[in-house]
Amino acid sequence: MPDSVSSSLDSSLRIGVLGCGPVAQAAHFEACRKADNAELYALCDVANDLRERMAAVHQPQVQYGSYEDMLSDPSVDAVIVATADAFHVPAARQAVEAGKHVLVEKPLGTDLDACLDLRERVQMNDVVLQVGHMKRFDPGLEYARDFIGEQLGEMFAFKAWYADSSHRYDMTDATQPVIVQSDQARTPEDDPKADLAHYYMRAHGSHLFDTTQFLGGSIEAVRARHTNEAGPHCWFIDVAFTDGTLGHLDLTVAVRMDWHEGFEIYGEQGSVQGKTFNPWYFKASEVDCFSESDEQYHRPLGSDAHFYRRQVEGFANTILNGTPQQGTGIDDGIAVVRAMIATARSVDSEQWVDLNQVQGSL
Ligand SMILES: NC(=O)c1ccc[n+]([C@@H]2O[C@H](COP(=O)([O-])OP(=O)(O)OC[C@H]3O[C@@H](n4cnc5c(N)ncnc54)[C@H](O)[C@@H]3O)[C@@H](O)[C@H]2O)c1
Fold first, then answer.
1. pTM of this structure
2. What is the CATH number of domain 3-133?
3. What would the pLDDT profile of 48-62 be if each residue is shown by its tens digit?
4. Strand, coil or helix: what is 150?
5. Are residues 309 and 31 in contact, defined by beta-carbon separation less than 8 angstroms?
6. What CATH number was assigned to the domain covering residues 135-304+330-357?
7. Residue nearest (by alpha carbon) to ligand 1 atom 37
8. Poorest-pLDDT segment among 8-22, 24-38, 78-92
C-alpha cells in the first residue's frame, strides 16, 4: 500500500464519490454516510448545479468539479466510481495511479484488454479494487454461500434467473429519492443504449453472472440463445462450471410480471432455494437451505439488508483491517466481463464459448 495512503488511514475510510448521478443519489451517498467505518469526505461532478445540490444535502467536507483535483487531495483514501459504464475503467485507472483504493460500479468495464491492463495497475500500485456487485452483501446470499461451503456437499446442479419487471419503474419510483438530473452531466460519446441487448447484458447480466460465480464457483464456458421477437430480451444460457457442476441461467428484460430473481442449487447433502427482491426494496433474499444432516430447512431473516452500505463497510474493512475481500475483486470482475462477452459470442455462433478464449468488448 502506498505510504501516502497508509499513513492517512485511521478507523474511518475517507471516501470521495465520483459522479452525482442516480446511483450515487439513491445508494452511495447514503451508504457512505451510514457506514460505521467510512465517511463521505468528498463528492465530485462536472455538473456544477447537480454537485452543489448534492453537497447541500449530504454535506461532504469538500466538493470538486474536477476528478483530477479530487485525486490530488491526500485526505481522500478511496473513491467510488459512480459514472456511466464507459468511464469505469479510465476513472478507476486514474484513481489507482493516484494511489487511491477504488470501489467501481458494475460492470468493471466493457473492454477486456482495458480490464486486464487495469488489473496490472492495481497490482503494481498495491491498492484494493472492488466492483459494485452489491448483491454479495445481501445477507440471504451470504447465508446461502456459507451453507454451500459448509453443508451442501458436492454441488452438481445450479439454476439461476434474473428477470427485470415491466413494472420496475413504478416500484423504484416509490422507494428511491427523487432523482435530480442535470443538463451539464458528462455522458459517453456513444449512446450506451444504442445496442439494447448489450446494454441489458451489462446492466443486468453482470449481476446474474456475479451471483452465479459467488454461489456456484468459476464458470468455464457458456452456450447461449437469445430472443427479442416478442419485445423483451431473453437469454437462456447453459453454463459449464469449472468443477463440473451443470448450470442454467435465464436473463430476461423484462418479464410482464413482478421482479423475478432467484436460484436453485442441488448438492450431495442438501439444496438451496432463493428468492431475491428488487434491490431498491432493501430486503434480504429469502433463502431456504435444506440439510440432510438434520432434515431441516434453514432460513435467515437478514434484517439489515442495506446492500450498498454493507458493501462500503466491507470495502473499508478490507482496506482498514485487511479483512479478506468479500466484495467482487478484480479477477471476479474480469470473469464477469468475460462471461458477458462469451454469451454474446455464443449467441452469434450457437456454439459453446470458453471464457478464457474470448477477446474484445461488449
Ligand atoms: N449496483 C447497482 O445496483 C446499480 C444501479 C444503478 C446503476 N448502477 C451503475 O451505476 C453507474 C452510474 O449510473 P448513473 O445512472 O448514476 O450514471 P450517470 O451517467 O447518470 O451519472 C454519472 C455522473 O457522473 C458525472 N461524471 C462522469 N464522469 C465524470 C468525470 N470524469 N468527472 C466528474 N464528473 C463525472 C456525470 O456528470 C454524471 O452526473 C452505471 O455504470 C450503472 O451500471 C448500478
1. 0.97
2. 3.40.50.720
3. 999 999 999 999 999
4. helix
5. yes
6. 3.30.360.10
7. 185
8. 8-22
